[in-house]
């Protein structure tokens, strides 16, 4: 049996220009799997059942809360994109690389996976322990590519706090999941179909 040489395995930060499409997609799915696993483990350590945390609600109000919050975020993003210089909202080209050539079905799949995995960790696990404020600080810090500009960091923090707030209001994780999905899906579609490719 061939042994794996751990000395050849190196972890380092890569520049967006160094990433291939395949590597970027693999990175997305691996990090989301890790996010989900960590979220589930934290929920279990909190002596809670992950299945009940993701329990389906018995009301359609989650769609109203989720879509309403997503619409507010998208309006704010539209205003920012019209009046703020592009270099302030620059994420290093990651979103363009991620969504720029992706088919619609894949944008939907990525948005669904990201929204479920991230909301399980941040709202389902971390917010349960530390509340929406500290959860939003961690959420903003995790989105490293936006930390270069105070406006984008503040926007990510505010979105996270809003997701936490609608979770508290509706008492179901599916509300922030729906909102997160709509935000990511619409933004992905705007990047893919609404802007000229560079």
| Main sheet summary | none
Mean pLDDT: 89
Oligomer: single chain
% residues in beta strands: under 5%
Category from helices, strands and their pairing? mainly alpha
Helix content: over 70%
Assign an overall shape: globular
Distance between the termini: 48 Å
Count of discrete alpha- or pi-helical segments spanning 4 or more residues: 7
Order of helices and strands: HHHHHHH
Query: What is the alpha-carbon Rg in Å?
Result: 18 Å
Low-confidence stretches: none
Compute the number of strand runs: 0
Description:
By secondary structure, the protein is an all-alpha fold. It has helices at residues 21-45, 50-53, 61-83, 94-99, 104-142, 150-170, 174-194. Helix 5 packs across helix 7. The radius of gyration is 18 Å and the shape is globular. The mean pLDDT is 89.
Keywords:
198 residues
SSE order and pairing:
Elements lengths: L20 H25 L4 H4 L7 H23 L10 H6 L4 H39 L7 H21 L3 H21 L4
Helix pairs in contact: 1-5, 3-6, 3-7, 5-6, 5-7, 6-7
Summarize the structure.
The protein has seven helices and no strands. By secondary structure, it is mostly helical.
């Amino acid at each position: 049996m061939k042994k794996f040489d751990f000395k050849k395995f190196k972890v380092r930060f890569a520049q967006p220009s160094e990433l291939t499409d395949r590597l970027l997609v693999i990175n997305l799915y691996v990090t989301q799997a890790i996010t989900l696993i960590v979220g589930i483990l934290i929920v279990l350590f909190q002596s809670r059942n992950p299945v009940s945390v993701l329990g389906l609600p018995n009301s359609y109000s989650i769609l109203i809360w989720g879509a309403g919050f997503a619409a507010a975020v998208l309006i704010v993003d539209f205003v920012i994109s019209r009046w703020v210089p592009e270099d302030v909202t620059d994420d290093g080209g990651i979103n363009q690389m991620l969504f720029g050539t992706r088919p619609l079905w894949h944008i939907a799949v990525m948005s669904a996976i990201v929204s479920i995995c991230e909301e399980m960790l941040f709202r389902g696990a971390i917010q349960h322990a530390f509340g929406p404020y500290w959860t939003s600080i961690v959420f903003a810090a995790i989105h490293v590519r936006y930390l270069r500009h105070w406006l984008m960091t503040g926007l990510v923090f505010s979105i996270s706090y809003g997701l936490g707030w609608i979770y508290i209001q509706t008492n179901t994780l599916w509300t922030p999941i729906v909102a997160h999905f709509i935000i990511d899906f619409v933004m992905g579609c705007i990047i893919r179909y609404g802007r000229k490719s560079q």
